[in-house]
Amino acid sequence: MKQDSMNSRQKAREIAFKLIFEYTFNKTQNNEMFEEYTAGLTADEISYISEVYNGVISHYDELVEKISENCKNFTFDRLFKVDLALLLLALYEITYIKSIPNKVSVDEALNLADKYSSEKSTKYINGVLANFLR
Is-above-0.85 flag for pTM? Predict the structure, then answer.
């Protein structure tokens, strides 16, 4: 049973990541995409996605500042949008969702980076998150 909820949360996290990724381009909340992505999901999945998506939007400037402060040897402006979206997602979870262990937030961001970004990005994201957690 626990495995099903893990898969459910992973699916929800991936959808939240996609919505955040889209947000990084035009800084506009896209309710149409939200509805499309969440159609057919459980109430728990939609609740998580909504909390993270709306939370990242509400705290965007603060989260970007935290990312900028923890980028080593790399300027924030050069971050790939995929990596930015993953860092926003992970930092939001770490900062605001205390029920999710930090290690889970980091591991899940790295799993998504493996899927959507490059090997170098995975290492970089891990480094930024490690710097933040110190």
Answer: yes
